[in-house]
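Researcher: Please translate sequence to structure tokens.
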Amino acid sequence: MINVAIDGPSGAGKSSICTEAARRLGFVHVDTGALYRSIAYSAIKSGTDTNDEDSLRTLLASAKIELKFENNEQCVILNGENINDKIRTEEVSLKASDVSKIPMVRAFLLDLQRELAANGNILMDGRDIGTVVLPDADVKIFLTASPEKRAERRYNQLLEKGEETEYNNVLDKLIKRDYQDSHREIAPLKPSEDSILVDTSELSFEESVNRIVEIIEEKL
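Model: Translation complete:
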């Protein structure tokens, strides 16, 4: 089984770039951020405090999270419901950063992630894949872009969805998320020592995908 680990900050385009790269390579793309988002969504929906470990423990006890793949597209199933279209809001994004700091949440999802990697050729993206989840991955890439460029991309995505927002507000939230992710005690966001840095600030989507595919093919 071939494992590719791709890490990077919020808004770096990991999900869309990795989905297309995996399609071209014939791999399955696993977006681990969606798993944390599913817990954040469940917490918001139930009114659970994402900073209260006891409340989260109760939430996890009743949460059944599955990943299903339809036409090579990942579907997140929470307690029998496909929540793909409900977990991409800014509110869920910030709450996902909160729950990702909780050790029990990370432990809850770790086995699921590793089980997926053991059962096929996987391109897995997240924030601690190369450092914690799959430290022995065959290829490790750290995908990033400047905060301003990432905020611009996220801002345009939100506008396309019909969500009213302001660029500066998106940038402020992204910077806050970067700080939370890189300063948490458990599995902070950082490149692994053997990862390859890919900065997409000046690259188009197509150029970014081509670069990722090129690196993987060279390594394998």
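Researcher: Any highlights?
Model: Strands lie at 3-7, 28-31, 65-70, 73-78, 81-82, 122-126, 139-144, 196-199.
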